[in-house]
Here is the input.
Amino acid sequence: MKNIEQLINKILENRVLTHVLYWTASVLLWAIVGTFGNSNKWEPLVNKLCYLPAQIVVTYALIYYQIPKLAFKKRYFAFIASFALSAYVGTVLARFFKIYVYEPVLGLGGEQEPISDILTNLPSLLGQYMLWVYLFPLFTVVVKLIKDHFEQKQKMEKLNTDKANAELGFLKAQLHPHFLFNTLNNLYTLTLYKSDKAPEIVEKLAKILDYTLHQDKNEGIVIDKEIELIENYIDLELLRYGDRLDFVFNKNVSNHSAKIAPLILLSIVENAFKHGASGDHGRPKIHIDLSTQGNQLSFEVFNTKPSVAQTDKTNFKKGIGMNNVKRQLALTYPNQHQFKVEETADTYKVLLIIELMPVMAMS
Here is the structure.
């Protein structure tokens, strides 16, 4: 079956061969159908072959010039003139082959009509030949239009998918430099003070870099791996803030095999530290609840906010970060997520619910 499919695809890639096979099939089909109730079994084949040159002329005129170049571009007068000319040429060809090939081959005899009469006898051309010349070409036009419609639809779907994937890649790329900037900045500060925590930060950072540089290329990551990434990031932040941070991370994962798009949850956690704990010299609070039930993931992140507005040297504003997350969710989980933000003067809470089902970015 696979070899047959490969052969068909190879044939379809050869345009000339495809057209030859198409017209050959039309001749054979006409000949086979015409044999029913016909005492002369060769008559349908000869008849079809006599009409074939005319049908080929009018078919290609229609599908490659008259419809796409004239009708679709609203050049209606030129379309009518071109159609009339091709109809005249087609019917003349059909009548010529009928008189000078069909009748002699079948031994019908009789006096042959002069070519001048064929060229000028419009009532005979239109009345006897117009329908038979255009019957199969019109069917071919319908097939071509349907084929073009589906090809155009596939191209648009691929274009939209490629555009969405490119945008998704851009959004992810925005997050990585910001995260690395913060972590390396923390490491730099600890090394200045020759802190014993510096090696631990390097180890955690190495694990996170391995995740972002390799696992992020996967179609989706199991939830346990994403949790491990979040925990490594949290450990780095806790080394920075110590006991002054009121931090809680509750996990209740029932479906450990469920997959999730990488780094979306981390972005929300990072936002809580960046705009919650950072700049708050009191006792900031960050509470995270993560749970799964079946294929549904629930992720809630609550943080207090500092009383004094913060400056952002990385130009990664809270609005940009959350808009980035929202856009990633829209691209990765269309109609399969809920994202809510509840903000007051002192607190900020994000609630995210995702249906962990196969989606565009993981298909």
